[in-house]
Design brief:
Blueprint (H helix, E strand, L loop, with lengths): L1 E4 L4 H11 L2 E3 L2 E4 L5 E4 L8 E5 L6 H17 L4 E6 L18 H11 L4 E5 L14 E4 L2 H7 L9 E4 L5 H11 L2 E4 L1 E4 L5 E4 L10 E8 L3 H12 L5 E8 L5 H7 L4 E5 L7 E3 L2 H9 L1
Parallel strand pairs: 1-2, 1-5, 5-6, 6-7, 7-8, 9-10, 9-13, 13-14, 14-15, 15-16
Antiparallel strand pairs: 3-4, 11-12
Helix pairs in contact: 1-8, 4-5
């Protein structure tokens, strides 16, 4: 077995290869003067079981194109079996047509991956799990929040409450709370625009307690900041924000910290300065099954 490291996931790919006790391959990736990608895999893949690890954060289009080139090339070079590991699946939030005439980009990206005919697809905390159901290849969504819950022990939280910023995020808070042995709840969120949200008042027992806001993605930070303001009004002691995928568009991280977060953390599905825990164990364990 060989693990191939996409340029967006070098450290995660290495961790996966170490846990699987197999070789790691780093493709040669360059750009032509006009911006087109040139990719070369410098090893013989004939008859190999290949695991490609490539997340698709910003720049999403380049990272997706690299993923497709990797998948198609390893198949063409004679790999016996190919697993596509896409820890962060960009475009997953556009999984349905919200307005007439919109492209359902998640559906399009899945079709493109299917066209390269990998034997399986793994992703982590995809925005809507049902979006990968019915694909032409076996697809599985892995859950990172139990790992997050275990990591939270290191913060020595006082009477912690894990909080989803909306009803849809309650499952993330519940999964992490199961590992930590803590309470969990969620807030009521109303989205005003792609970058603006408001939190509706809700009875919360947070006075003097440490609260951890958990979601699948932190992008602009608007949702987290609104939750922070509400929790401060309810006299929470310390407030942390965490997620699986740290998209952190623009100056989101600075804005969250300036709004009063004690700390911000994420997994390494997107490799950033706040990646505190790795999803390599759940990826490697699933591949080894």
């Amino acid at each position: 077995m060989l693990v191939i490291a996409g340029s967006a996931s070098p450290d995660l790919a290495q961790s996966v290869s170490e846990r699987l006790n197999c070789g790691l391959v780093k493709p040669e990736l360059t750009k032509f003067p006009d911006g087109e990608l040139h990719l070369k895999i410098p090893v013989d893949l004939e008859g190999e079981h290949v695991v490609i690890v490539q997340s698709t954060p910003y720049p999403q289009n380049d990272n997706f194109m690299e993923l497709l080139l990797l998948l198609d090339t390893v198949e063409d070079l004679g790999a016996k079996e190919v697993a596509a590991i896409v820890p962060y699946f960009a475009y997953a939030r556009q999984d349905k047509r919200f307005e007439p005439g919109e492209a359902v980009t998640m559906q399009t990206m899945l079709k493109l991956i299917e066209s390269t005919e990998p034997d399986r697809l793994l992703t982590v905390d995809v925005h809507e799990e049902k979006s990968i159901k019915g694909t032409k290849i076996p697809a599985k969504n892995l859950h990172a929040m139990p790992l997050v819950g275990k990591w939270l022990f290191s913060l020595n939280l006082k009477n912690p409450l894990l909080l989803g910023p909306d009803r849809g995020a309650q499952d993330y808070a519940e999964q992490a709370a199961g590992s930590l042995g803590a309470d969990y709840d969620y807030l009521f969120k109303k989205r005003k625009s792609p970058t603006e949200v408001s939190m509706e008042p809700k009875s919360l027992d947070v006075e003097g307690r440490d609260v951890v806001i958990l979601d699948d993605i932190i992008s602009t930070g608007g949702t987290v900041i609104e939750a922070l303001e509400l929790l401060k009004k309810h006299n929470a002691r310390k407030i942390y924000a965490g997620c699986t995928h740290a998209v952190l568009a623009g100056n989101a991280l600075d804005r969250i910290l300036e709004a009063g977060a004690e700390g911000v953390f994420a997994t390494d599905t997107i490799e950033t300065e706040i990646s505190k825990m790795s999803v390599a164990p759940i990826i490697a364990d699933t591949i080894a099954e």
